[in-house]
Amino acid sequence: MWQRRLPELPPWPVSPRPFPEEALGSWLGRVAARYRMSVQHLCDEHELRLDFETSRAGWLVLPVVADPTIRQLARLARLEEDRLQEIQTTTSEATNWRIQFYCARCLFLNPVDVAAPRWKRVWLDPEVTVCEVHGTPLVSVASSALHRCKNFDQTLKIIGRIELKRTSELPGLRDMRHSRH
Phi and psi (nearest 5°) for 53? Predict the structure, then answer.
């Protein structure tokens, strides 16, 4: 019996470019956010085989992605495959962590493009505890909170709420806020 092959889907009309220091899951989350859909829906629509359910942090911390899927992503985004291979997460143990780490200043203020926050790959390295740019300790977030996010915009909302709560609890900032009134 012959099998009917579906036509190849056209490339995405617009695709954010990955940043060299970005994690692959971060880029994929930004692509999904661009089209106002979940990463799961994006994968379903384009028959992308990504195993993000094995990660405690979901799509943000992907295990190593197979070459055929990288090839398909590169075609859809009109990128060289090497560009996506370079941003793969090489630390597979990060998928099992109960918490993930980040630097809020680096996350929200991307010096290359201030309108495009991104999750750095280096934050997935278990040896890294301090931001290499700011010299401040990385902040933790529960992987389960990230797992619930549908795309990168939702991730930014969650981190934004965490940062608002965290900074409002700092003694100096709390005192300054009360002194204005």
Answer: -75, -15
